[in-house]
Design a protein that fits this description.
CATH class of the largest domain: Mainly Beta
Strand content: over 45%
Structural class: alpha+beta
Bound molecules: adenosine-5'-triphosphate
Number of domains: 2
Shape: elongated
CATH topology of the largest domain: ATP Synthase, domain 1
Number of helices: 2
Distance between the termini: 20 Å
Length: 141
């Protein structure tokens, strides 16, 4: 980009690094709400919601990454995101996510019938992940 100050952002998962870039702005959805991080932001540690992060790549242009929950840490102009799973928007397999959504909905129905609260919670999280992937893969921001 330009000679503006930049920060480095990296997204790692148990499968390895999914994303690494330099940018002037990252917008994250933490469990406490939206957090915008620019170079020289104060150090921060936060947990991430099942949502997306957006990395500015140009005027009105962002890379979008689906995050299935995790943590972020920012210090010394490095933003490290450790996620249980993460996919760049263009790598999301929408039909796979749609199948996962249908499976999760069935599990939720069955868990309700059986009054299985633990399974209900797990299935609701699976549903959130699937809906998140579907929403991000279809978004046009
Ligand atoms: P599924 O039931 O389709 O596996 P899941 O929510 O159980 O979905 P995860 O356990 O969150 O899947 O992820 C397992 C691996 O598969 C991770 O590497 C994740 O990035 C990848 N992944 C899951 N769903 C998709 C998808 N729709 N498109 C691309 N990669 C995906």
């Amino acid at each position: 980009m330009s000679d503006k100050p930049e920060l480095t952002v990296s997204v790692v998962t148990p499968d390895g690094e999914v994303y690494n870039n330099k940018t002037t702005l990252v917008v994250c959805k933490t469990t406490e709400g939206e957090l915008g991080i620019m170079p020289n932001h104060t150090p921060v540690l936060a947990s991430l919601a099942i949502d997306e992060i957006r990395v500015k790549t140009g005027e009105d242009k962002f890379d979008e990454i689906a995050i299935s929950g995790g943590f972020l840490e920012f210090s010394n102009n490095t933003l490290s995101i450790v996620a249980s799973a993460a996919e760049r928007k263009e790598n999301i397999d929408t039909s796979r996510a749609e199948r996962a959504r249908q499976r999760a909905e069935k599990r939720i129905k069955d868990a309700r019938t059986k009054h299985d609260e633990k399974e209900l919670k797990r299935a609701e999280i699976s549903l959130k992940r699937a809906i998140n992937r579907i929403r991000i893969s279809g978004s046009n921001k």
